[in-house]
Amino acid sequence: MLNKKFHKTFNWEHWPSSMFYIPNLPYAFYLASKAKHSAFFSAANPSIKSSGNGTESKYKTIQLVPEKHRPKSILHNSDNDFLATYKAIQESNIDFPLIAKPDIGFRGLLVKKINTKEELEEYLKKYPVNILIQEFLEYENECGIFYHRNPNSKNGIISSITLKKFLTVTADGTSTLKELINNDSRAKLYLEILENLHKNDLEKVPSKNKKIKLSVIGNHSKGTQFICGKHLISNKLVETFNQLSYKIPGWFYGRIDLKYNSIEDLERGEDFKILEINGIISEPTHIYDAKNYNYFQALKAIRSHWKSLYEIATTNHKEHKVPYVSSKKFISEMFELRAYTKKVKKISTY
User: Fold this and answer.
1) Coil, strand or helix: which one is 326?
2) DSSP result, 7-27
3) How far apart are CA 276 and CA 145, in angstroms?
4) Is residue 7 part of a domain?
5) Is 210 domain-assigned?
6) How far is residue 244's CA from residue 65's CA, in Å, rounded to a whole number?
7) How far apart are CA 41 and CA 34, in angstroms?
8) Distance CA 103, CA 86 (A)
9) Distance (Å) of CA 322 to CA 6, 41, 156, 192, 326
10) What share of the chain is helix, strand, coil (3-state, %, to 5)?
């Protein structure tokens, strides 16, 4: 436990989000004063509630995506009858395993791969909040692509690609799964999470050379390693995202998390599925590649994206008459989100 705390303290990629935003607050205040409105950023993505400040419904947002690029999804409201939800799953041709996650949430909180009907019923009873249920996608790769386009421009920019390397261990034929986890420098940092995910297999000895993927959830908080993929940015890929942005009305700024098999498929705009659209609170997650970036470069990258956010939001407001959300309403939504997040975190410990 001491080694784990020591590692996370002295490796900045594991630092709390406040360490990336508090130092940048002076720049945020500067942009707000320049825009003459403290919630200017709320005009960036008119089709998403408050432009994606974290209070938006993931289900409603994913519906903005063209059907061929979105996973089969249904929304389970907290007061829904389980049998009605199960019927909706069947009617949508969603098979097990599937993915369940809070309709409002971030950083992988309560995201889980569900293998059976019984497991799903237990999950929905345990977590009485609105839950987004999606098909589990069997693609080889997952990444996050940060795209932004000024509303007055036909062409946008891909400013960040983050490749996701899932926690994986290779069996030696003699060690138990728990021993393999403890012998892996990264996996052991997430031992508590992994013990819960693999509680029935921890004492088993996997066959030699077998590769065991320890998590299928592509979140940094679940142990997934974020790797800078900016070398994959190409004119073809930018054009694909230009075309995609035209088909997602009112979305100009944010990160798309998606699954795909090859970068060539992505460049052609074929055979990929979008898991989520993240708006104004999204991060260029390549900055968490600690091998290629340092802490101060990460802070600078955040400021650079905020500059683009300012230009998009103020253009929407001044030239396209998109209203800013009132400061009072925006602050109220933030308090609601804080209360909701505390509630979800509390029930996640039951």
Assistant:
1) coil
2) HHHH-GGGS-THHHHGGGHHH
3) 11
4) no
5) yes
6) 8
7) 12
8) 17
9) 47, 11, 20, 46, 12
10) 45, 15, 40
One-letter amino acid of 196: N
Q: Cα separations (Å) of 75 from 98, 102, 197?
A: 13, 10, 24
* Tens of pLDDT, residues 27-74: 999 999 999 999 999 999 999 999 999 999 999 999 999 999 999 999
- The residues, any chain, with a CB within 8 Å of residue 30's CB and separated by 6 or more, are none
Helix axes 295-320, 25-35, angle to 10 degrees: 10
With cut-offs at 50, 70 and 90, classify the pLDDT of residue 3. low
Q: Give whole-number Cα distances, 194 to 7, 152, 260, 273, in Å.
A: 18, 47, 25, 26
Tokens of 241: 């995202």
55, 59, 64, 66 alpha-carbon torsion, rounded to 10°: 150
Structure tokens at 11: 């490796």
pTM for the whole structure: 0.92
154 and 283, same domain (yes or no): yes
Q: Indicate if 56 and 101 belong to the same structural domain.
A: no
